[in-house]
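Notebook, bench 3.
Goal today: get a predicted structure for Phosphocarrier protein HPr from Paenibacillus lemnae so we can plan the truncation constructs. The sequence was checked against the plasmid map this morning, with no discrepancies at the termini. Length recorded as 91 residues. Pasting the sequence as submitted so the record is complete.
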Amino acid sequence: MQKTFRITDEDGIHARPATALVNTANKFKDTESFAEAGGKKVTLKSILGVLSLGLEQGDTLTLISEGPSENDALNALADVMVNEGLGELNE
């Protein structure tokens, strides 16, 4: 399962929101979650991985979850993106 977002935060994805995403992904032990942008795919369980994407305002980010709780994990990650004002869902 995956959802794609357009980054709306003027600071992009920096340490604080990256931490929120990583903490959320780590709640789902039975599911792997990834962030993909600019042809690069990283685990969402590593803050350095997320920061290495260098996401800035206007960039596109795809969140991917695979595993038994993929639906719950992806919805929780999407909530972080929207509620933290990081991005908006691309339909």
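The two ends are 14 Å apart (CA to CA). The mean pLDDT is 96.
Flagging this for group meeting.
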